[in-house]
Amino acid sequence: MGKNLSKKEVKEVLMILEELYPHAKAELNFSNPFELLIATILSAQCTDVRVNKVTEKLFRKYKTPEDYLKLTEEELGEKIRSCGFYNNKSKNILGTCEMLVKEYDGKVPDTREELMKLPGVGRKTANVVLSNAFFKEAIAVDTHVFRVSNRIGLSNSSNVLDTEKDLMGNIEKNMWSKAHHLLIFHGRRICKARKPLCEKCPLDSYCIYYKENVQ
Ligand code: SF4
């Protein structure tokens, strides 16, 4: 059997992370739900820094789904090439824009079910859009949230869906979005994938990974 921290410990862990990262927030740049949706599709297997560079130019010229639909798949692919998997991402973005125009009057829907019908939009992307653009409580589990929360003991599961359920059960609802950003910040800066910097981490006295593998 694996281990989970108690709810009290989870609260304490989040308080420590809040002190460590008082400015934790989305690192993708956007100014409306549509821009966040496009940026999040582009961010698969790519860094936020790279996506921000690409969208800085892209968003200046292309502001609505209709604008994107004037481009061919190849033309859009060229503009987003440096984000990687550009053929697929271009196809998904244009498919998403087409659906937004046809079924949602050009607006981004604000429910998970509807968002997940859009091409290239999985549960994680839907949760990112819900929490960051619509301020709805959701926990998007990306690679950092998955790794860090299972190392610390905020979750004890081997897949992202169960991790999301564990986190929703262990963390108070009004902290879901915040916790998502805190865990990403921690994963990028200290609890890195290959070599976590445990010697710099203030969570060592809570962390189950630390107790089992480092201490
Ligand atoms: S103690 Fe190490 S494994 Fe645990 S959260 Fe900190 S960096 Fe990650």
Q: Enumerate the distinct ligands.
A: iron/sulfur cluster
Domain module count: 2
CATH class of the largest domain: Mainly Alpha
The CATH topology of the largest domain is given as: Endonuclease III, domain 1
Q: How would a crystallographer describe the biggest sheet?
A: none
Helix content: 55-70%
The ordered string of helix (H) and strand (E) elements is HHHHHHHHHHHH
Radius of gyration, in Å, reads: 18 Å
Low-confidence stretches: none
Count of beta strands: 0
Q: What is the molecular shape?
A: elongated
Structural class estimated from helices and strands: mainly alpha
Helical segment count: 12
Please state the second-level CATH architecture of the largest domain. Orthogonal Bundle
- Considering the protein shown, what is the CATH homologous superfamily of the largest domain? Hypothetical protein, domain 2
Q: Average pLDDT across residues?
A: 95
Span of the ends, CA to CA = 20 Å
Question: What order do the helices and strands come in, and which of them pair?
Answer:
Blueprint (H helix, E strand, L loop, with lengths): L6 H14 L12 H10 L5 H14 L3 H5 L3 H8 L5 H19 L7 H4 L7 H11 L9 H10 L7 H11 L5 H14 L18 H7 L1
Helix pairs in contact: 2-8, 5-6, 9-11
The structure holds iron/sulfur cluster (SF4).
The site of iron/sulfur cluster has 13 residues, from α9 and α12.
